[in-house]
Structure prediction request, 382 residues.
Amino acid sequence: MADFVFRISPNVILGPHTLARLAQVASSWGTKYLLIADPFLKEFDLVEKAVASLEEKGISAIVFDDIPSAPTSETLEQSLSLARGAHVHGVISLGGLKTAALGRALASLYNETHDVYDFLAGAQPFSGSLPFIEVPSTCRDPFVFMDRTPVVDARNRQIRLMKIQNGVCKAVVIDPNLYMNMSPNTAVSMIFHAIVLAVEGYVSTRSNFFSETMLGKAIELLLLALDPEQSKLVGTPSEMLVAQGGCMASMGVAVSSPGVATAISLACNARYKTSSSLVCSVLLPYIMEDAARAKVDKIVTIGKMLGVSGAGLNSSEIARAAIDDIRRRLALAGLPTRLKDLELTIDQLVPVAEDAAALDLMNYIPRAMSSDELFDLVKQAY
Prediction:
């Protein structure tokens, strides 16, 4: 058995109104930042509040919010040009997965002289990175604690997992109040997305005692957040449960690995701008079914977390009951249950399966799958 080595970076600041501490955190690394902001947040004045908070501490912020729904390597080149021209000291992202991924890549490549596409092809950045601070407005980022970040290749819209230096992200500021601006449907789909991450990491061949502990607790917290009555009983607001569960899911999956649903959702979003959260939600029962073929004990344990009664049932039957319970919860939430409900055609999903199969995180799924087998799973979910 391999030795377990644990190092954590970035620092985590989690709690209500922690956005107000952004300037205090940022002041440790400089006085001029590029703020990559999700344009969706402008209507809630959150970008203006972040800028005002920074300026009060003498920190200037150049806002970059010209971000499409699926930013590509061209967006990365534009933001790099802006940051280098302004000679910024660091990068802050405020928003969801796309802003964090863009900020992480920008900070990593700021001091590099080679072409962006060299790094999309697999080159390792070696120059010193800029400090990066992530302020997530969602709870389901698998790359917070990892040395990879997703980038869409503008030449062919394929998803790439670009290598980044260790320690690019210096701090992640998690403010549960940011989640309260989502529509109820969006919020529920993002909770299910975080559950998918936790399940993938839990059944991964890279899982270990630490990841299983973190991800098991993440699933428990996220399930509580889905049930308002239960969250009242534990005395913790649902948005705080989501923040805690999402953080633990990101941390646990970083020492284990994301899996099939993450790969397919990234590829779908890259090619067709389809919601990653909705794709993951649709795929959740199907990846559990597939995982039960190699890791039935893990699915049984997840069944216990779901409250499935195992009385008089064997392991396979408990696993089936757990998967049925997930389908029931998805139906109660009113989320799509088929990929065709997301306006995807079966022909579009052929290159998606090929792109997903090429990602190195597929090396750690419960059982090896070729692109043809991956497409078979996608067809089942279609």
